[in-house]
Amino acid sequence: MRVAVAVAALALIGGCAEEPPRPAVIPGLSMVERGEMVADRMCAFCHQVNPEKPPAVEAAAPSFMEIANAPGRNREYLRQFATEAHLVETLGPQSMIMPTTLLSPEEREEVITYLLSFQTDPEIGRQPWKKLEPFE
């Protein structure tokens, strides 16, 4: 009996250390649609990820539309940016890390595909990149 209780307690403790479960891939959705779902879950608190819906808080974070149409924003640039840790300023006393590093490689690709769906001229991605304040 004691062994069963100990095993159950270890399972509960171990479960607390795990990452929260990721949403299941929904069959039939495009990569852009899956990227929108991930962006709504992981990015929309600070960034405007949909042209018709403001971010959850008033933040200095650029919108996905601004990012997509800034010079040099192409898949390779966004891939590199999204895999690096970036401290962002907050209204509170501490900076926080942008959650891009918490995304799985698949989720990162989905969000990048969604973000690039707002790019109005693909030529802009081939231009030299310019800094978007305050995040780079």
Could you walk me through the main structural features you see in this protein, from its secondary elements to its overall organization?
- This protein has 136 residues and is mostly helical.
- The protein has a single domain, classed as Cytochrome c-like domain (Cytochrome Bc1 Complex, Chain D, domain 2).
- It is 40% helix and 3% strand.
- It has a two-stranded antiparallel sheet.
- Helix 2 packs across helix 5 and helix 4 packs across helix 5.
- The protein is globular and about 40 Å long.
- The N terminus is likely disordered.
Descriptive keywords:
136 residues; mainly alpha; Cytochrome Bc1 Complex, Chain D, domain 2; globular; disordered N terminus
Large-scale geometry? globular
Strand arrangement, major sheet: 1-2
Name the quaternary structure.
single chain
Name of the level-1 CATH class? Mainly Alpha
Integer average pLDDT: 78
